[in-house]
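Attaching the record inline, Q. Sequence:
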Amino acid sequence: MKRYKYFYLASAVMLLCCNTSCELDQLPEGSKITTVQKDQIQLSDPSKLNADVVGFSSALIQVRSISEWAGADRHFDFGFPAACIMLDASGMDMPSENSGYNWFNGQLDLTDRTDTGENTFFFWNLFYNEIKMANDILKVAKADAEDATIKKYRGQALCFRAWAYLNLIQIYQFTYNGHEDAPGVPILTEEMTQEEAANNPRATVAKVYERIMTDLNEAISSLLTTERQDKSQININVAYGLRARANLLMHNWQDAANDADKAMVGFTPYTKAQVSKPSFNSNEVSSWMWASIYTETSAAVQTGLLNFPAHMCSFTGNGYAPGYAGRYINSKLYDEIPDTDVRKKWWVLADEVYDDKGKLEGYDFTKNEQIDWTWKYTYQGKNYNIAEWLGWQAPYLNVKFGPYQDVYNNATNACDFPLMRVEEMILIKAEALAQQGLNGDAAIALKALMVNRDETWNKATVSVDEIWFQRRIELWGEGFSFFDMMRLKKPLDRTGANFASGCEFNIPAESPIMLWIIPEDEINNNAGITPDDNNEIVEIPKG
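Structure, as predicted:
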């Protein structure tokens, strides 16, 4: 099956990238061992499963995963952070420049909704590869295992599989509520043979969510604790967080609130001081619950441009974002943010005032002593300092994501990427309460976030739309806005804002154009899915 061809290829690459995994693939003299022998080794020494668990994290930040298939080096091909940019670019909160330097133009103008496009294959490959890796671990780490180490690794595998399905089902079908019987995505488990996988129809949305909840429930009930090697791995807090996301989608409101509460234990939001400068570049803060962690030697960093900062950090010294394909906030959303909200300074306006040290009026970046505000950027023979550099960018440019080690113009793009933050859990809890009509309790819950964002905020009640507004601001650029729009059944309204010409859509909620198309390769190689079973390919609306 061609799908598995690519999964095996990707898995092999990732395992080769993990130093700890090599011992599982070769004997000391270099001869290969079989999969069965590898499983026996892992059972005799369960700690050796750790190499495969590390592979989950490696897969999320893998570069050039589809180069063979696409036939070229694609600068959007850098794992899950790239998927987040794709999703955000498909929504209504992240305009960008529609230029040849923007590798995410296909999401900006919605031309990527095809069955042969590299973007839909990227999604499919990324998440089904995680499922393949999870299934490989689950074949060894069985449900009746008594060893504590095996149980821990089984729990992580179940959570990674659930997370992958949770992403896939939101990309290839509308939200759970009202679409329970609609075709979702194929379900692959560790018990399935390759022959069964080759004749595997789209499971219903309800069945996919049933699989997600079954995996998460088992992991939470008996397998995971708070312990883990680092934040790139999943522990019980993250598992609760994933189930909170799923429960919110399924309208299990109180369960979502309860899970969010449990997920937050031991974590605290970013302080006002922490978000009063470009941040969101390091997992070493109490706000981050789960993260993709990069080092200077990470493959994505070594490429220079195939990484999140290159496309999202306005202050990096190596990337598209600083001058050619900047990422902006929807101007209408920006105008709605109160001036008293510190997050309004996550985006800058061309007419704002800077002093000669690069201090933005009302927003003091200079408190961080690591920042060198005197650096110069040379363009077409002229030198620019930070203030001048920002000044010639278009208004509403983001400065949310700080550069590596908070050193501006740093050409090393080794910034970590947040996969889950405590702020998201606060917002889930608040929305779940508001959805039950407990608007006062929702305001109390939301206060835990707002006290660090806007000291004047003191609402006694909040609506679901108010909480969505806060999600749009707080989680901007982290891959949530498209899913939120789909979950809440909102139209894609880009009118009257700062979107490029031809991208100013106003598309009704749940329009077929919003769904990605299952790749042609999957249709050709999976007898269980015919072309008629695919999502509808529709004409792109005129902007």
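The chain has a mean pLDDT of 86. Residues 148-172 form the longest helix (25 residues).

More tomorrow.
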